[in-house]
Amino acid sequence: MYLNTxxxxxxxxxxxxxxxxxVIVNYESEELDLSQPNNFRDLSKPxxxxxxxxxxxFDERYETWEHDQIPPFHYGTHYSTAAFTLNWLIRVEPFTxxxxxxxxxxxxxADRTFSSVTQAWKSCQRDTSDVKExxxxxxxxxxxxxxxxxxxxxxxxxxxxxxxxxLPPWAKNPEDFxxxxxMALESEFVSCQLHHWIDLIFGYKQRGPxxxxxxxxxxxxxxxxxxxxxxxxxxxxxxVYNMVFLFHSYNQWDLLPYLQRKCQLRNNDRFSHERxxxxxxxxxxxxxxxxDLLPYLRRKCQLRNNDRFSHERGDKENQIRNFGxxxxxxxxxxxxxxxxxxxxTPMMFSTVQDDVCMIMKFLSNxxxxxxxxxxxxxxxxxxxxxxxxxxxxxxNKWNNNYQQxxxxxxxxxxxxxxxxVKLPMEMDQLLVMxxxxxxxxxxxxxxxxxxxxxxxxxxxxxxxxxxxxSTETAKILQVVHGHFDVVTCVARSECNxxxxxxxxTGSKDCTVMVWxxxxxxxxxxxxxxxxxxxxxxxxxTGHETEVTCVAVLAELGLxxxxxxxxxxxxxxxxGDLLRSLEAxxxxxxxxxxxxxxxxxxxxxxxxGQICNYSINGRLLQRVSHKDNIQTIILSRDGxxxxxxxxxxxxxxxxxxxxxxLYTYPPCDSSILSLALTHDHKFLLAGLGxxxxxxxxIDFNKWHHEYQERY
Length: 710
What we know:
By secondary structure, the chain is of the alpha+beta class. The chain has four domains: about 1-225, Neurobeachin, Chain: A, domain 1; about 225-325, no CATH class; about 345-405 and about 420-430 and about 625-710, no CATH class; about 440-455 and about 480-615, Methylamine Dehydrogenase, Chain H. About 20% of the residues lie in helices and about 25% in strands. It has 16 helices and 30 strands. Strand 17 (about 560-565) and strand 18 form a beta hairpin. The protein is elongated. It starts with a helix and ends in a 14-residue tail after the last strand.
């Protein structure tokens, strides 16, 4: 996405929409083996050159092309246009309405409507007029494959009705297809050759002799600076350009009879749909007489617009709309290949780690209800924050130089090894917070720490406030009032060091409030600009009982909240209610909400029910756990779930199907809180006996690339 952005591609412009590659070539097998290279596309070739027969056709077209004004090209179509993007997203509003506007108020013929992933791939390999690449939504938006709105797209020639997208046999549902597609995109097979595709789309193979050798030359009007209509002196020629551009923005197929008629008169040969429709508008008109086309185009435009076309309307914007736009050329030299993680850290050199790395016992003996690990080396003081149920807290320094036992620190045998054994964490003194409402039981969602470990937010005070503490002195820095009852839970958005973040609070008054914490002022700043009496950025309503849990996903601007014997509500950060995540039968009160960047929501209800929802509210999975789960966290990539409860067992689950992957040895008390270090090598657990356990964890051993079969 970064390359798309700096090359001028954006979600705000359908004509220059972000482009992603096809990476899988097997869309017919019942099972997809991601460990087999033959299931992956050769990214060193453009989509039009993967089929040798089709490549030979394009090479011959380029070599035999003869025209004074139009340079030779391999492809008359493009891999990304507004029409192609809208065709991919035709089942999702507002793209449906935009597609209808593009097509003059009606859907395209059913046989040309996107209806099957397998057929779309085959078309990209067989049809000489189809060289489409993908869009990012193929890797993140399962809703694009389902006709939720019940649009009528018609019937194909074989009588089948176009409804939902027909997925490959190896995909159980749209969510499964998107997940596997993304796994393939992020696999080592793709990572090790992705630089070749970057060279084709954004790099040195985009233009010039290297593009010719790579069979990667597109119609000249798709390249930046190819035509400047403002400098054209022939007004008739300019109007032909403009008319054709404008005409393409309505319905290209209306032009087919006219072009075929003109071609038959001149060469007694019926042109194919590809030449007449896709690039034939220009090729045919230029190959014969462009001026002959002008009266027809003007007449058609007047019929549709009731307006005589002016020279200024068909500028470069219409050119991009209809013929696609090649991104800016970012690189003039080959993009360096990505270093493979599998090559740099082979698993053969890794020994099996003990499950338990360290046990730390606090003198207070109070249950450790909150653990936060801000251990990145960039943090001024890398530390693990622990808070107990009696409101004592400690900032325990983390040792980032700790070397796991059995793992070589250097492959060179000449360096001396440090014989001194160091533990990953050092215990710090306990500090105390006061004035809490004794009716509110301290839990993991009662506290949050800032990314730099300098400040701590706490809720549950009798005066209906939540407070900001200094972690160095336990001094109260700010008391924030806003709710009309006791604040029951608090959460913050993820942020980098020294970055502002959102703070979300839930209360017994049935409301959720959004606040802004600024790193510059080191305090909550209200919309009124005041630090002494800040006001919330938004107040979220809709609950009828006390709020039990909150979560926030700032990247998408969403706030999630649950209430006692009520639903989970999804709001925007501005306070708009979007939808409700209704509890399934047998589920009553949402107690824990955990949100992944991969756009799914994990909700733990009472009675041990754990539900996985899509970001748009669809229930994906549901399981019942025999333990009373107290804490749930997700890995950064959202693929794994760690949870613990009263049984004292920490479990690792796979998120997409909620299957158990691993169980750690049972502890002697309940698990109240969990946290992961920044490098995802250690899992920290707060126990009911006042202990902190440090587990070794290695997600690689559960990754699909290290399994014999996916």
